[in-house]
Amino acid sequence: MVDAQTISQLRNRLRQWRVDRGLTLGDVSDLTGLSEPMLSRVERGERQLAPLTRVRVARRLGVAVRDLFPIEELEPI
User: Fold this and answer.
1) What's the CATH class of domain 4-73?
2) What's the CA gap between 4 and 36, in Å, rounded?
3) Where would a tag sit more exposed on the chain, N or C end, judged by fewer CB atoms within 10 A?
C-alpha cells in the first residue's frame, strides 16, 4: 500500500516537472496518451498510476523514472 507521503511526492514531482517546462495538462496528455482528467487527478494525489504506466509516462516525457516517481514503489517485472 502506498502511503500519503509517497502520493504527495508523486503529485509534487509530476506537477513541478510540468510547470517547470511551461507545459499544460493538455501538452502532457498529448505526450503520454493519458487523459487530462487522469493527469489532473494524479497531480492532486487522487489517483495513482500503475508501475508500468509510470515507466511509460517517464519514457514519453524523456526523463528518468526516478525523476517523477519513487523507485522503491516499482516492482520488478
Assistant:
1) mainly alpha
2) 23
3) N
Whether 40 contacts 50, CB under 8 Å: no
DSSP one-letter code for 76 = P
List the grid coordinates of 33: 496518451
Q: Which three cell numbers stand for residue 55?
A: 515507466
Tens digits of residue pLDDT in 23-41:
999 999 999 999 999 999 9
For the chain, the straight-line distance linking the first and the last C-alpha, in angstroms and rounded, comes to 18
Single out the residue of 11, 5, 22 nearest to residue 49, CA to CA. Answer: 11
This prediction's pTM: 0.73
